Amino acid sequence: MEYEDKSNYKVEYVGEKFTKDLKSNKVIVIGRYGVGKTTIINTIMKKASDGEYAPTMTVDMKNIQIKVNEEIMQINIWDCCGNDKFALSTPNLFKNVSIAILVYAINDEKSYGDLEKWYNMLKEYSNEIIIFLIGNKNDLEKEREVALEKGEEFKNKYDDIKIFLETSALYGNNMNKLLENIVISIYEKDKNEKNKEDNALNKTETLVKEDFTKKGEKKKKKCC
User: Which of 136, 146, 180 is nearest to 11 (CA)?
Assistant: First the structure.
């Protein structure tokens, strides 16, 4: 997979691998049981989809590397089961998350109704986080129970939900766009954090120099 997005980011798939010395970025996929979280991840991981996936009973984690503008991004994608009790008993799943993908199925009104609960659970454990809202299974249009406008309404309700997409993980609808947004969002977040660190370091160095200069001026005054 290789393409250019509208912002002139060059995004290229590297492979399913893990490099110890490379920074890892945690992405979690959450939502009600049966909305297609595992299928979404397997499609992202470029695995062949035959529609037959065992539901995740606990937690599964996969590694993927993507090159963005010649910089390799390492992403750990966590597949969280739709069991509320299990999720609540493992709060570490929600810590140090870069991106959360909140999923419902367009043919399951209950999964849409659960979004608020999953969103609140996520916000309880995670502060600075990028959230994507995904309405999965849009290949099942004839079975639709959740209108497109309902997804847009939920997205617009919260400022920290960055994008809303309807997808079909089974047939690949909008999956490239989802992956593109994941890696570019992480890339931009890392760059912003680095810029903040550089600015803080420069500010500290400036203050040290100013303090050193002031102390030197005081010494001169004392000896003259």
Answer: 180
User: Using one digit for the tens of pLDDT, what is the confidence trace for 130-186?
Assistant: 999 999 999 999 999 999 999 999 999 998 899 999 999 989 899 888 988 888 888
Inter-residue contact 80 to 56 (CB < 8 Å): yes
Residue range 205-221: mean pLDDT, rounded: 61
Residue 14, classed as helix, strand or coil, is strand
Strand partners, 166: 135
What domains are defined for the chain? Answer: 2-196 (3.40.50.300)
Structure tokens at 206: 């400036």
| β pairing state of 71-80 and 59-68 | antiparallel
The phi and psi torsions of 148 (rounded to 5 degrees) equal -55, -40
| DSSP H stretches of helix in 145-223 | 148-157, 175-223
Residue 91 near residue 19, CB atoms below 8 Å: no
Total-model pTM: 0.77
